[in-house]
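Write out the 3D structure for:
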Amino acid sequence: QLQLVESGGGLVQPGGSLTLSCAASGFTLDYYAVGWFRQAPGKDHEGVSCISKSDGLKVIADSVNGRFTTSIDNDNNTVYLQMTGLKPDDTGVYYCGADPGTCPLKTLEVWGQGTLVNVSS
């Protein structure tokens, strides 16, 4: 079965850093685009980033550009979201999702349960 599992969330101070992991199993990330999405309390889902190594694409949302980036470790079949300069409004549940399409993602073949990021002092 196709599966993505996020990890790395937690409580972090404003201005701090976190790296989230999205581990894929049941498939390899070759020829998949992988995106990160988030949902803050009371808000709609928001696309954060997308990466497709086969297409040579990396897309970062304007709201986090310059602070967040995403990368792939093919040996570990894992996608990372590296976050710095975290702000309270970055708080939310972060999900990863993958699809054999390209960035930006319109549909997701598989997605994870999410990991909570709470940016608070």
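The chain has a mean pLDDT of 96.
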